[in-house]
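PROTEIN FOLDING TASK:
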Amino acid sequence: MAVFRGKASEAGEAKVAGERSLLLGIGISAIGIGMYVPFSLVFFHHVTGLSFTLVGLVMTVTGVAGLAFMPLAGSAVDRFGAKRVNLVLYGIRALGFALYPFAGSLPAFAAVALVTALADRSFSVVQQSLIGEVARGAARDRLQASTRALQNAGMGAGALLVSGVLALWGTGAFTWTAWANSLAFALAGLLVGRVRPVPAEQSGPCAGRPAAGYRMVLRDRPFLGLTAANFLTALGYSALSVLFPLYLSTWLAAPDSLTGAAFTLNTALCAGIGVLVAGRVRRSGARRTRSAALGALLFAAAFAGQIVLGTLRPGQSATLVALLVIVVVYTLGELVHSPSGGALSVSAAPEPVRGRYLATYQLSYSLATALAPSLFTALLAVDGRLPWAVLTAAALGAALALLRLERHLPAEAVHAEPPAAAAARLPATAAA
């Protein structure tokens, strides 16, 4: 059981040393990501001068190689610490984007893209591990929510920034954008370097023993169940970017502009109210398993709404209103699920092998992202409502699995704050 001291035991979520620098660094790096992710193929085509075909092939191959590297990143976190590995990855990304304008040949681009992809794919594992390394208890949930809000805001700002730059200076500005990305990652690394990890807890199944390998993860059935449940939910996270645009244009025959409106609404809500929603959930005292399950149920409600909409197919005005309502419900599910689910995975991982555990957990997101395009397009070809039906069933299955796993997961993972500490703060009458 985690030990809380001082203000941490009184408030349930102590401030993290260097928290502002950490969040500022995350926000700056998100701006850098937003400056190239929406334009990936075009970005690298203009920066390197290679054809779209070659750029696409290299991005696919290096992306798959990056997935294979994630388990090694988890081992590195356990050996060297999340903060050190995080700084190395920031340095690799900064160097990679600084070199892209000089990688005009296929071998040079492939080499730079491979090294950068290894850092990009592993970054989520390391960042989640870093949150576990610098925060305890409910502070992890708060950092999860703040990180997600900043990432959404930063990526939106980065996309707007590069759009303005391209409008003013044309595609030649992509080279300067690459160097701006390099600077953003370097600055983010300097800021994150100011955060201070909290002392390691000397309790739990691995206390006093050397870190075990991935065999320990594979023997941990509750954690594997948590990972499987997250895979079902992660399919839903891919729906807005992959399925939604296709569904609008093919099944509903709606204007493509609705896709942009949906993305804008989702991004604005995540950036604007993400921390507030997560704070409300956190202050309610809900168990992480139950709040994550609630998020999955909201996903299911949004997906079921798409089935109803696809069946009724009302006029354009009614479709617009219905889609925006569905996007709001979907986004609320994202805002409720993400902080709780992230903190749950971090806290369920034994500290000495947290990197390996989280590398395994993050594979659920990566596999869902890789599977989503082929799965959704195949189902959509049969019936436009079928992929939403599959996603509804997946979200309901994830919610049920989270509730069933609750009694099998460590208490310090299920509860953002130890129940004894929460009870101690209750008024005497309430405690009685």
The CA atoms of residues 232 and 394 lie 5 Å apart. The chain is about 80% helix and 0% strand. The longest helix spans residues 316-348. Confidence is low (pLDDT under 50) at residues 1-12, 202-210, 421-432.
